[in-house]
Amino acid sequence: MTSIRPPAVALRRWLDDAATRRRTVFALVLAAVVVAATILWLVCTMWPLDLEIYRSGARALAQGDDVYGPLPPTRTGLILPFIYPPFAAVVFLVFAAMPLPLGAMVMLAVSLACLCGTVYVVVRPRTERRTALLAALLIGAGSLAFEPVRETLWFGQINLLLMALVVLDCLGPRTRLPRGVLLGLAAAMKITPAGFLLFFLLKKDFRAAVTTVVTFLLAGVAGFVVAPEASTKYWFGGGLTGASGMSGSIFATNQTIQGAVHRFGLPDTPTLILVAVLTLAALALTIPAMLRADPPMAFLLNAAAILVCSPISWSHHWVWIVPAIVLFAGRAHTRLAVAGLAAVAAIFVIAPHSWLPKNGYLELSWGPVEHVVGNSYLLLALGFLGWQFYSTRRQTAAV
Which helix (H) or strand (E) holds 123? Predict the structure, then answer.
C-alpha cells in the first residue's frame, strides 16, 4: 500500500514554494471564476422555493396572520406550509422586508460565506491561518459541484447557515461566546440540529449541553413574546408535526431509513417494524463509535446519524458531505484512501438518485439495482457508521 502526504501537508509545502505567489493568484482567480460562473447560473435558473416559504411565513407573522395556516402560493403556484419554529419566522423577517430577487442574492451570499467558513473551521486546527484561508476559498469553490450544495443554493435553503453555526460551536476554537449558544440558536430555527446535543453529552461537555438547552428555550420564549398565537399553535397545537405528512416520503430525494423502507411499498406494520429496527441499529453503531472517536470524527458520526434517522433528509440536507470530505482528505495517507474518497465525492456530485425514475410514485416500481443506486447517500452513511464502529473498536482494543 503506497503512502502519500496528506493534502493538508502538500498544500502547506506548496504555499512555501518559491512560486507561491504566482500559483496562489492563479488558484484564487480560478476559484473566483468558478464562483462567478455558479452565481451567474443561479441567477439565471434559481428557483428559491424554500426562501419564498420563509418569506411567506415571516410576512404572515408581521401581518398578524396565521403563520401555520394556508400561505399564498409561490411564483410557480405551489401552496406549501411553513414548518419551522416561530423563532425562525422572526429571523426570516429580514427577508420578508426585501424583494424576492434581492433576498435570494443575500441568501446566496450568506450561504457561500458559511460554506467557506465551515471549511476554514475544519481545516484550521491542522495548519496555519494562511493555508486554512486559501483552502477555505478553494475547497469552498470546489464544493459547489456537490449536489446537496447546488440544490441548497438553488432553493434558497438555510442548510449552509445552520451547518456553519453547528460546526463553529462544536469544532471551532473557544471564544467568549459560551459553547452551545450557536447550536441552541440553530435548533431554535430548525429542530433537527438539536440532535447534535448528543455530541456534547457523549463528550461529557455538560456545560455546553446545558447552554444549548437554555439558549433553545430562551429563543422559544422570544418566539412566544413576539408571536404568542403562532408559538402556542406550533408547540402545543400540532404545528410541530406540520411536516408529518411528508415523513418517510417515498420521493427519491428523501435519503433516510424511513424513505428507503417506504420505497419498497410494504404494508404499514412491516414498514414500521423495519424502520424501527434499522434506526435502532444505526444508533447502536453510532453511539459506541462516537464514544471512542476523536471530536471531529465523533461530530461526523453524529451528523450521519441525524441524516439517516430523521424522517426526512432531502438530498440538499446532505451538505455535511463538505466537512466530511475535508476531514477525511486530511487523513488520507494512502492512494487507496484517496481513491475511495474521490469515489465518494463523485457520488455526491453525480447524485445517482436523480437519474432514476422518480416522482408520481415511480419510486415504488424500482428494482433491486435501482434501490441500491437510488439510496446511495443513505447507504454510504450507513457504511460509514458501520466502518467507524468496527475500526474504533479495533483501535481501542489495540491500545
Answer: helix 100-123
